[in-house]
């Protein structure tokens, strides 16, 4: 493909970029881009990737590696690059999560580990380290004559991030020089050697440490990785953990690798989970990054951007005001409000009735609204679901568990997109867009199967024949659990799960593929329980006509016309303290999800507002009105 001269290159799919975004896209060195809410981080990184590939700055066969913290963010960025960049170039862009990338390295190169760190029995399901288990472990080792006092003072909640995460595994056995090395050595021994014939018990932080060791211990693998990925993107860099930052520094902190980090200190909500507190300063020092600040907000209306700026100033008094590029669609007086109610039932009823009326008046869809809670969305689900059902709407808890994953993580899986696409084709006579996506995915799968026929016309005929067979089966079979399981099995055989594992790096680990496949079947069966037609089953699977309910943390990267935060009170926000900026940052993230309207509810039955009074003070300072909505004010069913 012919290269585009740098001075002739233009953005794809957008009219223009703000001046700072142009600088970030064309940067010839590492850069740290501060991007507030609605600044268009995904678009910026997609344009940067397109620029590097189309101008030949990223020379063939080198690739670009983009590392995100959430699966949906990684998938969205991969899809956006696919839209902005020609297929022949976009295939040289790899977008993965940190955990998937480091886990993939261990799965592929485990045999290259030094003898002391080998995994003779492999490892089991990956999960976070339990605090209770850590507490017992530290208690057992607190009698160490040399390090007992320091061990006794360790925080079990921070053990994984600050002890295991900050310790580089030594190639050879050596005596411990401090309490951290002492307990880390013993912890690793227990997980690798103290379990007999059982698989090792590892967390993603531990896999990260093993991946870093593999590369540090094997210069040839490390050199090949750096040559493959001379350009690295880091999304949401403010949430980088100690282990993740050390991995980046060890692997990519060298001349010849250009790093583009994008994030926002005001949205730092993962410090409780071990995020590096001063990551922007470290990036400037360790990677010599050029600081760039984006000032446009393409998501929120001018009034909401003004309110967000008041909150932002409480986090950083020197922050510049963002410039809204969104047109206001409602009266400025309706853009934000606090609703005060006396019971959880009246709260749920009023929210449901408001959403129903507003949806009808403005011709919006259920998914244009987002119900956000601080945590434990399942506790809020029953009452909200009941009241929304009374107005003919459904609420879907995006945080619900499906086997070993969550619904929100499941629906953005590439495997799910493929299976759902095939089922959609079987329920519709004509769907050109879905056909093109499915056909391209099947072509990609067959390209990784040496024994398969990969010619376009042949693949097209086989895909058409399979869809016809699937359509015949659906039309002659009633909706039910057994049929759901049979359908997925038929698709398993057609796509060939071994080919899926070869074609998609995230599925090269057998347990990851089985987790997704198991959850997909669980969700399809659940979706079928209240449906009579297969097209309705698929709509229920996707949540097409459902109002999403989720935690604030799970809302990162999403946007809604109207965001309703349920429950700003001392009980729901029990961990909030004025001297801890992370609580305010979480609140800022929630408010900044909205495009047109923000609604915040307080229910006196659930909790008082003494502890969270500073948040109410900020809202008052921003001019957000509060309305007293007691039972008599309701429509009263």
Automatic annotation (TrEMBL):
Signal peptide: none annotated. It comes from the Bacteria. GO terms for molecular function: 3'-5' DNA helicase activity; ATP binding; ATP hydrolysis activity; DNA binding. It is an enzyme of class 5 (isomerase). PROSITE patterns: UVRD_HELICASE_ATP_BIND, UVRD_HELICASE_CTER. Keywords: ATP-binding, Helicase, Hydrolase, Isomerase, Nucleotide-binding. The keyword Ligase does not apply. It catalyses: ATP + H2O = ADP + phosphate + H(+); Couples ATP hydrolysis with the unwinding of duplex DNA by translocating in the 3'-5' direction. ATP binds at residues 35-42. Residues 14-301 form the UvrD-like helicase ATP-binding domain. Residues 302-557 form the UvrD-like helicase C-terminal domain. Its EC number is 5.6.2.4. One of its GO terms (biological process) is recombinational repair. InterPro entries: DNA_helicase_UvrD-like_C, DNA_helicase_UvrD/REP, P-loop_NTPase, UvrD-like_ATP-bd. This is DNA 3'-5' helicase. It comes from Asanoa ishikariensis.
């Amino acid at each position: 493909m012919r290269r585009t001269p740098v001075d002739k290159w233009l953005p794809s799919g957008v009219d223009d970029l703000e001046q700072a975004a142009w600088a970030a896209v064309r940067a010839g060195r590492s850069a740290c881009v501060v991007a507030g809410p609605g600044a268009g981080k995904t678009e910026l990184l997609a344009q940067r990737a397109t620029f590097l590939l189309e101008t030949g700055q990223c020379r063939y066969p080198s690739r670009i590696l983009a590392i995100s913290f959430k699966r949906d963010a990684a998938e969205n960025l991969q899809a956006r690059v696919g839209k902005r960049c020609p297929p022949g170039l976009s295939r040289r862009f790899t977008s993965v999560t940190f955990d998937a990338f480091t886990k993939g390295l261990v799965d592929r190169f485990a045999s290259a580990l030094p003898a002391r760190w080998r995994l003779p029995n492999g490892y089991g399901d990956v999960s976070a380290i339990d605090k209770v288990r850590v507490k017992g472990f530290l208690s057992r080792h607190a009698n160490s004559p040399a390090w007992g006092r320091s061990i006794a003072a360790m925080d079990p909640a921070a053990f994984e991030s600050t002890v295991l995460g900050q310790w580089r595994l030594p190639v050879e056995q050596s005596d411990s020089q401090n309490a951290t090395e002492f307990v880390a050595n013993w912890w690793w021994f227990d997980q690798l050697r103290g379990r007999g014939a059982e698989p090792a018990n590892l967390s993603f932080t531990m896999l990260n440490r093993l991946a870093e060791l593999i590369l540090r211990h094997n210069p040839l693998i490390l050199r090949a990785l750096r040559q493959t990925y001379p350009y690295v993107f880091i999304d949401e860099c403010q949430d980088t953990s100690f282990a993740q930052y050390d991995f980046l520094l060890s692997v990519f902190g060298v001349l010849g690798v250009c790093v583009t980090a994008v994030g926002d200190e005001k949205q730092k909500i993962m410090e409780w989970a071990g995020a590096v507190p001063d990551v922007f300063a470290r990036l400037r020092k360790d990677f010599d990054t050029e600081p760039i600040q984006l000032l446009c907000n393409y998501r929120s209306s001018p009034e909401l951007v003004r309110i967000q700026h008041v909150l932002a100033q409480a986090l950083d008094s020197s922050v510049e005001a963002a410039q809204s590029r969104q047109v206001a669609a409602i009266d400025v007086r309706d853009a934000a409000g606090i609703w005060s109610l006396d019971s959880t039932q009246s709260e749920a009823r009023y929210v449901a009735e408001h959403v129903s009326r507003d949806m009808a008046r403005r011709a919006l869809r259920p998914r244009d609204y987002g119900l956000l809670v601080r945590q434990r969305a399942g506790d809020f689900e029953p009452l909200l679901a009941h009241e929304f059902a009374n107005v003919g709407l459904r609420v879907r808890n995006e945080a619900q568990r499906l086997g070993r994953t969550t619904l929100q993580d499941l629906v953005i899986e590439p495997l799910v997109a493929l299976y759902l696409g095939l089922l959609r084709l079987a329920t519709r006579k004509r769907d050109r867009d879905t056909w093109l996506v499915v056909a391209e995915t099947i072509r990609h799968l067959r390209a990784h199967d040496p024994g398969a026929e990969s010619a376009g016309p042949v693949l097209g005929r086989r895909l058409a024949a399979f869809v016809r067979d699937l359509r015949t089966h659906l039309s002659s079979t009633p909706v039910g659990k057994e049929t759901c399981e049979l359908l997925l099995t038929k698709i398993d055989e057609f796509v060939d799960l071994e080919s899926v594992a070869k074609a998609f790096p995230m599925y090269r680990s057998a347990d990851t593929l089985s987790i997704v496949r198991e959850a997909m079947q669980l969700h399809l069966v659940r979706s079928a329980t209240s449906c009579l037609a297969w097209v309705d089953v698929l709509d229920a699977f996707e949540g097409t006509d459902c109002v999403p309910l989720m935690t604030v943390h799970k809302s990162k990267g999403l946007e809604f016309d109207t965001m309703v935060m349920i429950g700003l009170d001392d009980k729901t926000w029990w961990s909030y303290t004025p001297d801890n900026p992370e609580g305010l940052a979480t609140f800022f993230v929630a408010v900044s999800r909205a495009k047109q309207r923000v609604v915040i509810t307080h229910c006196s039955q659930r909790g008082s507002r003494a502890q969270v009074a500073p948040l109410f003070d900020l809202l008052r300072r921003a001019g957000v009105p509060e309305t007293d909505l007691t039972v008599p004010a309701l429509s009263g069913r």
